[in-house]
Amino acid sequence: MSDVKPMVFVVDDDVSVREALGLLIESAGWRPELFACGSEFLARPRVIAPSCLVLDVVLPDLNGCDLQALLADRADMPIIFISGHDDVTTTVRAMKAGAVEFFPKPFADHAIVCAIRNAIDRSCAALADAAETSALREGYARLSPREREVMALVVSGRLNKQVGSELGISEITVKAHRGKMMRKMNAGSICDLVRMASRLSPATSTRR
Prior knowledge:
Layout: E1 7-11, H1 15-27, E2 31-35, H2 38-42, E3 51-56, H3 64-70, E4 79-83, H4 88-96, E5 101-104, H5 109-141, H6 145-155, H7 160-167, H8 171-185, H9 190-200
Parallel strand pairs: 1-2, 1-3, 3-4, 4-5
Helix pairs in contact: 6-8, 6-9, 7-8
């Protein structure tokens, strides 16, 4: 992912603003993609790369806050709002919904470049987090039903002897299942396993 050039999407119906932002984004070393309305942007296939969205509030089809709501599941694409209207209510709504910045027009180039850089850092962190969670889910999917039972009891603090007693198997068998489970989950310690189980919850909560 580190060798992928970050993408900055701009949705604004003002062609002069779009083009100016495109040049600014390109000069900062990112890849701009420009759209005149929300529907144009929604028609673009989702990209899995560091990115952010610079979004105007007033658009010809749906307003920026409505578009933001449609993108609520895109934690990997932070949103920076720009607006030619000084509307406190809209600003509050956008920020409460997760926007990272809100700039009135005209805005200073250095300020929006800084905001974009911070947004892309957030995007990178979100993508890394999603990749780690995906790897954990894949590891958990490889566990046998018995290994999942052992994992749930181990992360709840049970010792091998207690796990064996609860599952009706020998302590040696518990150790064998536990070793396989730790390898499949790529867990180096019980602390690692507890952290993994916490991220996978409620999938790992198969036993109380």
